[in-house]
Amino acid sequence: MSSWRISPWISRLIVLVVAGLFTAISLKFILDPQGSATASGITIEPGLAYTSTRTGFGGFPLGFALILVFCLFSSWRLLAALSFIATVTAVILFVRLYAAATDHTFAASAYLLAPEAAITVVSLLGVWLEWTRRAHAAKIGPALSEHRDQPFARSNATLRDA
Fold first, then answer.
1. Confidence at residue 87, expressed as pLDDT on a 0 to 100 scale
2. 24, 107, 109, 120: which has the fewest C-beta neighbours closer than 10 Å?
3. What percent of the chain has pLDDT above 70?
4. What are the DSSP calls for 68-127, one per residue?
5. 36 or 143: which carries more pLDDT confidence?
6. Per-residue b or e along 63-85, where b marks 16 or more CB atoms closer than 10 Å to that residue's CB
């Protein structure tokens, strides 16, 4: 099997894993805002703070996950999904690095920096893979369509001549 035939499935796997991660993060904050906030060192009060935590920390990742799931169903949306992942995770990574430097919390943030960097790198590799696959498809596309059209042209000519 050609590597170009499996590359959309590799891209889909990346998108699916990240969609699962965003879903897990969102459900954690939607279902248990107090416990999730406390685990992150955040103190929240019942009431509006719970609603804001569910919305901000739960709603946004869930929305991101749903966008990614939507993109899974078309190979042409995979580049958009991978670019979306790369953009979101790179922004999160840079903000975390800035915050860790500003707040002197590198040691406490270290367990999140490695996975965020890994997701960013893997998604950028996925963007490159998808971009390369499309370039390859565009390069061989005219040759393939030329061969595909011939049998139909012959059958149409045969039908006209009969």
1. 97
2. 107
3. 84
4. HHHHTT-GGGHHHHHHHHHHHHHHHHHHHHHHHHHHT-HHHHHHHHHHHHHHHHHHHHHH
5. 36
6. ebbebbbebbeebebbbbbbbbb
Closest CA to 84 of 69, 99, 100, 95: 69
Q: Which residues contact 89 (CB under 8 A, 6 or more apart)?
A: 18, 116, 119, 120, 123
Q: Is 31 helix (H, G, I), strand (E, B) or coil?
A: helix
Q: Helix, strand, or coil here: 43?
A: coil
Q: Is 128 helix (H, G, I), strand (E, B) or coil?
A: helix
Over residues 76-117, the pLDDT tens digits come to 899 999 999 999 999 999 999 999 999 999 998 899 999 999
Contacts of 75 (CB under 8 A, 6+ apart): 8
Q: Tell me the backbone φ, ψ of residue 30, rounded to 5 degrees.
A: -70, -45
Closest to 24 (Cα-Cα) out of 36, 40, 9:
36
